[in-house]
Amino acid sequence: MNTQLLDLMKKRRTIYELGKDVKISQADLYEYIKEVIRYTPSAFNSQPVRAVVLFNEQHDQLWDLTGEILKEKLEPDAFLRTKAKMETFKQSFGSILFFADMDVVKAYADNPKIATYQYDEYNWSEQAQGNAQFAVWTGLEENGLEVNIQHYNPLISAAVKAEFKLPSSWQLRAEMNFGSIEGNAKDKDFIDDETRFKLFQ
């Protein structure tokens, strides 16, 4: 069997120590990310995933803004650790904000032609998110970059939409940092196959 995809999946890890030593241009990365998301599957080809790619000062602004919001939510000692984490994120080459366009999700959920599935459309939009994030992550891995994914939504959702003037229907689902590999990934543990899989022949 061909194992190119599986080999990439085995290499994929969360790495927090990311850097800016990236040889691929920002323009090429942006086009590549768009193409990967464009060809990511979604239920009924509804295409609910939206993405915002941030480089340079805009990338820094995301994590400065996140830090400002969290400062109001955390005790001073806890915020010191969070502030250090924000600075680590800023060291990465760029970030991708993943959104679900809830106008699209609701339109499919309310479509009488597929009324049987209306309650599943929200779940399927999350599947589309997972597909897109995994595809982008694996694609960046293939190009020698690494990634970590954060979930500061919904705490930062309103502020991010206001800062970058995004549509109100866009719901923030994840924040992905990417860049050159400057640290090691931890080993990945797996639960027992007997717990996770069943085969009927």
TrEMBL record:
Q: Which domain of life is it from?
A: Bacteria
Give the InterPro entries listed for this entry. Answer: Frm2/Hbn1, Nitroreductase, Nitroreductase-like
Q: Which GO terms describe its molecular function?
A: oxidoreductase activity
Any single Pfam family the record assigns to this protein: Nitroreductase
CDD domains associated with the record: Frm2-like (cd02140)
Which coarse location class describes where this protein primarily resides? cytoplasm
Which keywords does the record carry?
A: Cytoplasm, Oxidoreductase
Biological process terms from the Gene Ontology for this record are: cellular response to oxidative stress
Q: In its keyword annotation, does this UniProt entry include Cytoplasm? A: yes
Coiled-coil-forming residues are none
Q: Name one GO cellular component term.
A: cytoplasm
Q: What is this protein called?
A: Nitroreductase domain-containing protein
Q: What is the lineage of its organism?
A: Bacteria, Bacillati, Bacillota, Bacilli, Lactobacillales
